[in-house]
Amino acid sequence: MSNPLRRWWRSRTDVVATFAVAFTLIAVNALAAQANVHIAGSLNANWRGAYDILVTAPGQDFGGSKTAGLVDSNFVSDAGTGGISLTQLHTIRGIANVEVAAPIGMVGTLRDLSLTPSLYIPDNPETKASVLTSSPELLRLTTTLSRNDRGATQVLSRTNGVVALQPREGSATALITSGTDTSMSYPSGFGAQTDDYSFQVPLGELPAFPASVIAIDPAAETKLWKGRANYLSPLQDASASRSAKTDAAGWASQVDKRKFLVQESNLAAVASDPEEQNDTVVPLVVNRSTRANLSVRVSIEKAPLTGALPTEGSQVQAAASTATWQPVGAVSSDASGVTRPFASPSLSLQWPGTKKPAGESGGVFYSQATSLTPTLIGRPDYSVNKSTGDKVPSFTVLPKGVTGPDGAALGGGFAATSGADPTAGKTRAYRSTSTPGGTGFGAALPAPIGTFTSSEAADTGTKDASYVPSGIGGGEEPTVASPAAGAPVTADSPVEQSLSNLSFLNSSPGAFTDLQGGATLRGSTPIDAVRIRVAGVHGYSEASRDRIAGVAQQIAKLGLTSTVVAGSSLQPVSVYVPKYFVDASAAHDLGRVNEEWTTLGASVTVSNAFTASTAALSVVAAVAVAFALVITQLLTARRRRAEAAILRTVGWTNATIRRRIFVSYLPGPAVVAVAAAGSLIIAAHTLGLIAWALSGALVLASFAAAVLGAQRSIASAQPHPRTRRRRQPASERDLAFRHLSATPGSTAAQAIGVFLFILATATGIESLAETRSAAGATRLADVVFKAGAAPLMLLIAAAAVGSLLLCLLGRRSEQVRRQAEQSVLRASGFTAGQRARIRQWEVLTIAVTASCAGTILVLAGTTALHMHLTAAIGAIAAAALATALLTAAARKET
């Protein structure tokens, strides 16, 4: 008798099955390890933002308690809560492993100047060159400030005034005067000024658009954002000496007069103004970007005025009510500059058809804003909705009151003296306001010593897989998902940020100051949050997470709220915006808007989901291959029964025969064991327990298959097996059924193979879909899924191939018998077509029965277990593929 290795080698089915199992074991562990490497690499590269811990005042969380754990983007803390002292900041910076501690505090929104455009009306008393007639006349002036973005026009303010003018006589005044002897107006805000060449008529106050002022530590901010905040360098270099009495001139020299004329002039004039010498200088880095495209337009009408020039505004009002007006024309000018904080743009409009004399520039009128004290802007309030059809978290932002376009109360400030239309510029507020302590610019002089753009301060993290809010700038512009009925917008159009700072969207900061400047404006140092980056964190590992958690615990011992934000990411949400459009009679909804909000702990969710998926898919693949090995061994045992029968005849006992046959199976488990050792070398350090479990399970399965094969060989070698009398087959179908019943093991193996192929495919697809769902809808999940999807899909393929292997080996196990049957059929006169149809009946019987069973089971699971529809589709596709493969194999046999 030959040795066991040779006997095993002669059983080609055993050899193929063994090497297939060995190869699959190595492939499964290698693919699982590769999946983990890809996932870990993607997490290492993307899990961490600019900082790791957000520190807020006691009782202040990250803001997700009322919004299902999600936080609107760029939110770090409720504005103006303070609660973190300079002493606590210094203590935090002294904690071990704190690399950067960057404080941030909202000083508030501030209004510094109120701007008034003017109409330049040529009138030279010396040359008698004037657009006015020789007698007094009335001019009715309607001034409209409009926003013109993306083809849409929105009226922000409208003022109406009447001025009575008459040409001047005599010599030029050489100075700007009130000109009350040659003009009178109603309301008073339209009172004309005169100079050598003209009347300059104020056209009413424009809205004083607010600027949000944020206090930061410029050195820490620059370090935190690794050079992206270099625009703060003027604040880093700013002097700590800020007395207006002694230092104003030095600060004035640092202000660009071309950009900030009023502020430079005020600083330069402190020496001659005793009242301002008690003020404190506040250095600022100011946003030089325009926030919107604005234009100002004045429509001019005139009417003759009988009698003398009115001496009171009421007389002008009375004359205007009975006048017959004739249109003169209209002139316009760009007014986008009024949205720049602390800016003083030229807003002088020229009388239609005229030009200013050489060297004459006209003017714009400035006055102190109605309020110089800070106003704090709160966070929008939201209610949680049921998820939309796409399962995106859904919220409704709760509307507040109606304000003017600048966020101030309608009809307040200079509205009366400017003849403001109370119905123009109504704006919906979605944030509440409050007035903190501090005198703001009431006792301080702004010194704009540097500038930045909105793009420089933009929250660039919104484009990354990981995300931590900067707290200082807006992010991606949201779009309209589905407009409300009647809303004047279209789907996918961007949502414009209002100029009131009270929109539900985050606006770009107007200016930065340092902590000392923030204390001047607010009366105390405003630190709402501290953003902490931890030193020594390298990659997404348990050690890194423990280091961050340890620092967070140390900070929490100070009595502050310490939230770990490392591993956060943005995910899509849907926000319904009600009562957005406000007109004179009603408010209309905007509709559903697409935004992205912050999800805490996204990296842990993603890691857990993919780790579980890798393990599950590996187990599915291993189970499929183990089934193939065991059933194949049972099938091949049939061929060893002749050997067992002979050995029994010559006197061998069953135990001795069993040992001999078992030994002949041992090369198979040995090959699997070697493959297991190799796969452990490849994957143990990456997969850990999973690799050991898979390898050990398949080695045990191979030994179990050897034991079962030996036992089956003995059982099938019983003498004189009982034969059943078979009825004469009547058709090709009957012959096919007879062949199948004559080889129950092979038939069962093929059916089980098809069944497992369908289940493995559906289970793999469901696992992949569930992994994607469990990982969440964050950007981090998208990035990691793209990195790990390929090896996970190959794991699904490995499980499916293992099942197909069982199916094909089961068919191959009776190949000799089928060849003999083909010879008998050929000798009996069956044509090639008939023989092919018999094989077709065999294949269809096996494939259809197993496919129906597998597909029905998957469909039932889809309904009962709420599985993804893709699993059912995959099951149907797998059934079709298995049928096609068996058909092809049967065709080759004929």
Explained architecture:
There is one protein chain. The chain is of the alpha+beta class and 894 residues long. Among the domains are: 4-44 and 605-719 and 730-893, no CATH class; 118-205 and 292-339, no CATH class. Helix content is 41%, strand content 20%. The protein contains 23 helices and 32 strands. The chain has an 8-stranded mixed beta sheet with strand order 24-13-26-12-3-27-1-28. Strands 2, 19, 20, 25, 29 and 32 form a 6-stranded mixed beta sheet that branches. Strand 30 (581-582) and strand 31 (587-588) form a beta hairpin. Helix 13 (602-636) runs parallel beside helix 20 (779-812). The protein is elongated and about 145 Å long.
Q: Give, in spatial order, the strands making up the sheet with the most strands.
A: 24-13-26-12-3-27-1-28
Helix content: 40-55%
* Structural class determined from secondary elements: alpha+beta
According to DSSP, the number of beta strands is 32
- Mean pLDDT comes to 82
- Low-pLDDT sequence parts: 173-177
- Tally of contiguous helical segments: 23
> What would you call the shape?
elongated
Largest β sheet strand count, sense and barrel closure: 8 strands, mixed
- Identify the quaternary structure here: single chain
* Beta strand %: 15-25%
CA-atom Rg in angstroms: 42 Å
What is the CA-CA span between the terminal residues? Answer: 36 Å
Features:
23 helices; 8-stranded mixed sheet; 6-stranded mixed sheet; 894 residues
